[in-house]
Amino acid sequence: ATWDLGGYIFYPSQPANTFHLGRGYFMKYKNNLPLSIQGTSPDPNGFDIPLNPGWNLIGCPYTFDIDWTRLAIVYNGVSYPHDDATHATPAHPVLIGDALYTFVSGGYVLDFKLSTWKGYWVRAFTNCVIHINPATDKFGRSASVPGAGRAVLGGGDGWSLNLRLSAGGMKDTDNYIGVSSRAVDTYDRYKAMKPPVFGDRYTYLSIANSNWAQQSGAYGVDIRSNSPALKTWTIEAAASTPNATATLSWPNAATIGRNATLVLTDLATGQVRDMRNSSGYTWQTGDKPVTRQFKIEAARTDRAGTLYVSGIAAQQSPGRSTGLSVNYSLSVPADVEVRILGGNGQLVRRLGSRATRAAGVNEAVWDLKNDKGVSMPAGAYIVEIRAQAGKNTVRAAQPVLVVR
After folding, report:
1. What is the rounded CA–CA span in Å between residue 233 and residue 231?
2. Residues of 199-223 as b/e, b for ≥16 C-beta within 10 angstroms?
3. Which pLDDT does position 105 carry in this prediction?
4. Which end of the chain is more exposed for a tag (fewer CB within 10 A), N or C?
5. Are the CB atoms for 162 and 250 separated by under 8 Å?
6. For 336-374, how does the pLDDT look when each residue is reduced to its tens digit (9 = 90+)?
7. In sequence order, what E strands does 240-371 have?
8. Which pLDDT belongs to residue 272?
9. Mean pLDDT across 375-395
10. pTM for this structure?
11. CA–CA dist 325, 316 (Å, integer)
């Protein structure tokens, strides 16, 4: 199978009925098989791979590795270095995405070179051409491929968090969020769109960005600016295996500086995890697996102890009449008051009276009664968190629905 103009093409349909230099393919074998090299060798003076807008599945036309970061991208007859092609300039729009993805053991993996016998995904945003000059673009012995976790920061100061999804014996392991001093909070070269799912058995983790115009879609890398503003990522985890245990994990959280708080919220259940004090989150896929959505919030604390409230989530007890559990995260220790408000904003109940809470995930429980001990009816309410640390005062709110 290969990919052409927005869809998979399978053998024996063209162009999947024969091999073409510069194109990538999916092949599946039941046994190990020897392969012979036949056909015409590529031009030793250079080779062009045309790209269509959208995803392109390409292959290395040479029998040696090519450095992805040295390639030239030709647009309207003008040749641009790889770095210039990955962001808009006065001379051209964004031409291609910065990332190069290959497919290994059922999952997509970031790569920084084109190797023989592998297929690679490239995201193009306009018609353009990859030009390979084997004399200058050959991946030398002295070159070293940087670890993806550091490479996605583009040399800037910051941190990256590796996100992994596993279910049914399949894994998707090469996904990153984080912050870098060189990145911004909208689309730039520190974001990498993720290729489409292949096949009917998969695990597929992505970071959803739906408001970036032409660059909207599913991402495998989303590095934001390292400004002190609260950062929020929407994570989507898809697993095709029914009745399996799915696990979202973040194995390198301990390497991130202590001046960052990380909070995960399961949007399906409202459960909250302090990612600094845990390594993963599990759930059951069920008879008919559906895509699970999560929210990850990161707040930066400076030496003065900047206060942030994040990860507000409320979950009603199974008995429906026993209470509502409210979780929230603090970036630093603070005096906190949790208030329940009615739909029109009137005060219903105070939970605690400016009690000091520790940094990280905290919990308060509402027994579904007002301050006079009267049970409240079903309906929409607002959870309001008021926190104070030194001279910093923060208010955050989240709507909730009570069912009777």
Report:
1. 7
2. eeebbbbbbbbeeeeebebbbbbbb
3. 77
4. C
5. yes
6. 999 999 988 899 999 877 778 888 888 899 999 999 999
7. 245-249, 260-266, 272-274, 280-284, 292-300, 309-316, 324-330, 334-342, 347-357, 360-366
8. 86
9. 90
10. 0.78
11. 6
